[in-house]
Amino acid sequence: VAGFVGQTAIKTTQKIDQAVGGVLFIDEAYALNQRGGNDFGSEAVETLLKRMEDQSGEFAVIVAGYPEPMKKFVESNPGLKSRFDRTVEFKDFSVEELLEIADFHLKKEEYEVAPEVREQLGNYIGALVDAKDKFFGNARVIRNTVKEAIKQQNLRLAEMPKAKRTKKELKTITLEDIREFTNDKAWQ
Fold first, then answer.
1. What is the distance between the alpha carbons of residues 103 and 97, in angstroms, rounded to a whole number?
2. Can you give the pTM of this predicted structure?
3. CA-to-CA distance for 87 and 73, rounded, in angstroms?
4. How far is residue 57 CA from its own chain's centroid?
5. Phi, psi angle pair for 24, to nearest 5°
6. Quick one: 155 exposed, middle or buried, by C-beta within 10 A (0-12, 13-18, 19+)?
7. Are 126 and 188 in contact (CB under 8 A)?
8. Residues 82-94: pLDDT tens digits?
9. Coil vs helix vs strand at 1
10. Helices (H), the chain
11. ∠ at Cα 135 (177, 124), nearest 5°?
């Protein structure tokens, strides 16, 4: 979406040209329907619809986002509803799956966690899942949780005398590192 009338169609056309022979993925597509002072989103949608019709079968279009706003997006235009005739809804991850995602990110960053840290992370993730709303970010929430744990570990190590910072200490997340940002419900 551009800042001036006419520019959005040009930018949209360029993105579609790049997608020909492949897939155009539009995340949070419902943002194109959020009306403001200038309705550049509808210009993008109209350009997309025309190209989808004119070049049917030459590229795939996937629009993604939260279920309710996406339903409104697809229903906002008869052309959208007829062209997006399949919906795939991804269920939220379970606590166990989210904990596996946390394990993956920690391992990717070469961090180790003791069993008691993993257990408390599981409790924290369980509390997040219990309190989730319809906009719960699933894996994104876990990625941010891991980043926060690493940040807290870095802050803890910065206060530690350099002589006490061992290689193992540099790659270990402790209970102290996660206690700072987890809520009271996660601690037993």
1. 10
2. 0.72
3. 13
4. 29
5. -105, 115
6. exposed
7. no
8. 888 888 988 899 9
9. coil
10. 7-19, 40-54, 67-75, 78-83, 95-108, 115-130, 139-159, 167-170, 175-179
11. 25
2 residue type, one letter: A
Amino acid residing at 25: F
Q: Helix 115-130 to helix 95-108 angle, to the nearest 10 degrees?
A: 130
Both tokens of 187, joined, read: 């601690």
120-171 per-position pLDDT tens digit: 999 999 999 999 988 888 999 999 999 999 999 999 999 999 988 999 999 9
* The residue type at 28: E
Record the tokens describing residue 145, joined without a space: 């949780």
Give the burial string for 24-34 (b: 16+ CB within 10 Å, else e): bebeebbebbe
> Looking at this protein, which amino acid is placed at residue 48?
L
- How many residues does this entry show for the chain? 188
Average model confidence (pLDDT) across the chain: 88
